[in-house]
Amino acid sequence: MPSAPVASRFLYAAAWLVGRLPRALQRGLGTALGELAWRANGREPRVARRNLELALPGLAPGEREALVRAVMRETGRSALETLRLWTARREATLRLVAGCDGLEHLEAAERAGRGVLIAAPHYGSWELLVEFMAARGPFSLVYRVPESAAGDGFLRLARGGANVRLVPAEATAMRPLLRALQAGEAVGITPDHQPKLGGGEFAPFFGVRALTLSLIPKLAARTGAPVLMGYAERHEDGRFTVRFEPAPADIASPDILVATTAMNAAVEAVARRDLRQYQWTYKRYTLRPPGSGEANPYQRPR
Question: The pTM is what?
């Protein structure tokens, strides 16, 4: 394991213990935790509810609440499942892959020799996709650095397997990612994280303007690397199908608004495959366009 603080190793040991629970028990416990979170109506279900109000305003209130409940149950399963994926051997993790759809797109992109950009939305299991890609060769993974050193050390232990290169989501990320693509390697970036102001463009996402990461379009335009949407979609039995789809051609447009709009449309199409599997508990719309007069939609009225 990479060098890490003692606290990070303690967290990893705790995750390992939970990750070793029998899969059926783990899934049942995750479902129960999600149900409990929904009933407690804490931060996560409130954020999910607000996101769905914004993104899917046509849903009837009862239909929306049923979806919030389903999202929380899926979120609970995913949380415990992630602990298993973070602490298991790669060969055991990959046994959860029931199949791969669109592998021909990935293989064609690899043969082109310009590197591959994997735009991986927060849908299904991002962590399983990381393991799938790293099993094929070097994979640079852009990640948001936790505020605590213990948390960062834990993530480096959890994700620091063979062929995985962790790149902090900072202003300096462009250089190592360019090197990886120029070497013909794969780079994975989540396209639906809200960047800081100046790090993206406000583009529509489910009909609402959202500050959208411009890193993927800029890398695609600069290197000519093909961009694929990649995700691991969960089945009811807890196994997954890994899917790869060509991203819209406009994702490499020099017009960043055009590029980010195309990218958001592709993420939205993935999310609509099974709305329960998308990360609605994330505050996607916090930052509003400067000068718009729009308020943070997650702030409670005083």
Answer: 0.94
